[in-house]
């Protein structure tokens, strides 16, 4: 038996006439076609359904085993529409009371409806696809659908439209350059924009930026402390940079000789290390808070703020010694203290983890 399937992917039949689908049988399909033609004579799906009836009548007149049906999808989502068409095809096949093998002939009005071919083929062999278009608009819908798909795809849209848009800027920018007597600058601006776009595409900057923005959005909705900690840490880093520069300028003003590279680095570190340490402690505490709330906190994570404090102590003492602010005894004390803080922290949390560990790290911290 040949099953003539008329495909209406966006469910014009159901939306405009109220017919429940699938529609099975010659009389029911003709009634549906008349109803759709009455409701919207310009709808291309009218031609599809009448073409299905025409094929049915032609084959039936030659005493071939044939049935005709109309299946529809839903408006708006191709994925849901294809799934709905598959379900309706299953219903049609279940209604056929025949012992013969069933094959299908799809009747569509363009490339969009033909996207269901793999869905139908997974259920019944397909003998062919008949596309029905008005002669005056041959291939018009297919071209429209192709353009629509290109514009709907963010990847293709960014790849094609952005370079075209940048190139189209050349002419107006050159005119502006001629008016203001700086045509070279305008051409350079266009070239720069095009070059930055190509570099960003090559390095995947757009995708990384999208991932970053999505991560920030999820952090806001999830109430993560890490986001606030990073903002505060960024401010502390900026303040640290300013403080380091001010310290360097102050030491340069105290001497008429030019400072060597070791002294320049020492001055920058001496003026900024406390700010950088505060930023490191802030971010580590924010991360620890989020891990604890999420139930993933491990004892070893608690080492982070102590390690930052130990390193800051050592760097501060070394930079102060190079600048002549402290004696060697202070440096030795600071180095020893920093080392002891790191060792004590590591041993303390290692012992705590071994004593309270039961396979669930978050429960270890909770019970401690």
TrEMBL record:
Residue stretches spanning the membrane:
160-180, 186-204, 225-243, 263-285, 306-324, 330-352
Coiled coil spans: none
The keyword Transmembrane is assigned to this record:
yes
* InterPro entries cross-referenced by the UniProt entry: DUF373
Recite the UniProt keywords alphabetically. Answer: Membrane, Transmembrane, Transmembrane helix
Recorded hits in Pfam families, A to Z, give: DUF373 (PF04123)
What protein does this entry describe? DUF373 family protein
Organism of this sequence: Natronosalvus hydrolyticus
The organism that produces this protein has a lineage beginning with: Archaea, Methanobacteriati, Methanobacteriota, Stenosarchaea group, Halobacteria
